[in-house]
Amino acid sequence: MRIVTWNINSLRLRLPLLRQVVALLNPDVLCLQETKVPDALFPRDACEALGFPHIAHHGMKGYNGVALLSKLPLEDVRTPERCRRTDCRHLAARVAGIDVHCLYIPAGGDIPDPELNDKFAHKLDFLADLTGWLTADADPSRPMVLAGDFNIAPLETDVWSHRQLLSVVSHTPVEVEALAGMQAAAGFVDAVRHFVPPTERLYTWWSYRSPDFAANDRGRRLDHIWVTPELKPNLQGALVARECRGWTQPSDHVPVMVDVAL
C-alpha cells in the first residue's frame, strides 16, 4: 500500500497539481492537509475521477481541513476532536486492516512562548492531547500509521540551520521534546528516516518568501509518516517529492511517500 501525505494548501485551488501528484506517485491512500474547503463544497467528483472511489473529509471554510482519498475501502471513519475544538485537524479510518490517521498539527504562530502566544499554547496542548490518547485510549492491537503536517522539524538535519532555528517555532526544544514524547507513546517508527539516514539533510517545506527555494534551500522537514513497530518490517521504501515545490503555483509543502507491504 502506497501512502502519500501532502499539505496541499487549498484543495480546490490546487486540483491541477493534485492530478500531477497522483500521476507522479500513484498513491493507494492520499492524506491531505489544509484543504481549506467545507464539507458541503468538497470536490468529490474530481477526486473520484482521479481514481479514488473511497473518500473521507473533514473541512471548514478558509482554514485547516483534512481528507483521505483511497483506492481501498475506508472503514471505521472517525473525526476525533483534539483539545475540545472542532477545527478539522484529525481524520482517521481503517484501510486494509491498518488505522491511518491524517493529522494537521497546529503551526503555532511566531512567538515560541505559550504565555504570550495562544497559538503556540494550542500547539503544545494538541501534542499533549494526542500523546495522552495514544498512551491511554488507542487500541494497541491495531497497526497504525500517523501521516501529515506535524509542523515540527525534530532533527538537526531536518532544518537548514539548527543553530539559527533553535528559537524559531517548529524547531524549538520544547516542541521537539513534545513530539518525541508523542512518538514514544506507541513506539512509532519514523518511516522516512528508516530509509534516509539521520545524518542526511531532508526537507519537505520551503517558505514562499524565498525567491528561489532550490538555490537557497532553506527548508524544514515538517511532514512525516510514522508507523507502529509491527509495521516496521513491512516498510518497502520512502520518497520526498521535492520537485513538486518547483511546479507552477505550488504548495509550500511537498508530498511525502511511504510504501507498506500488506
Strand order of the largest sheet: 3-4-2-1-14-13
Q: How much of the polypeptide forms β-strand, as a percent range?
A: 25-35%
Q: How many domains comprise the coordinates?
A: 1
Quote the CATH topology. Answer: Deoxyribonuclease I, Chain A
Strand-and-helix sequence, N→C? EHEHEEEEEHEHHEEHEEEE
Q: Tally the helices: what do you get? A: 6
Count of beta strands: 14
Instruction: Report how far the terminal alpha carbons are from each other.
Output: 7 Å
**Overall pLDDT:** 96
Q: Please bin the fraction of helical residues.
A: 10-25%
Which regions contain 5 or more consecutive residues with pLDDT less than 50? none
- Briefly, what CATH class? Alpha Beta
Q: Give the second-level CATH assignment, the architecture.
A: 4-Layer Sandwich
The CATH superfamily label reads Endonuclease/exonuclease/phosphatase
Structural class: alpha+beta
Radius of gyration: 17 Å
Morphology: globular
Largest pleated sheet: 6 strands, mixed
Tell me what you see in this structure.
This protein is an alpha+beta fold and 262 residues long. It has one domain: 4-Layer Sandwich (Deoxyribonuclease I, Chain A). 22% of the residues lie in helices and 25% in strands. The protein has 6 helices and 14 strands. The strands form 3 sheets. A 6-stranded mixed β-sheet has the order 3-4-2-1-14-13. The protein has a 6-stranded mixed β-sheet with strand order 5-6-7-8-12-9, with no helix packed on it. It has a two-stranded antiparallel ribbon with strand order 10-11. Helix 3 runs parallel beside helix 5. It is globular and about 45 Å long.
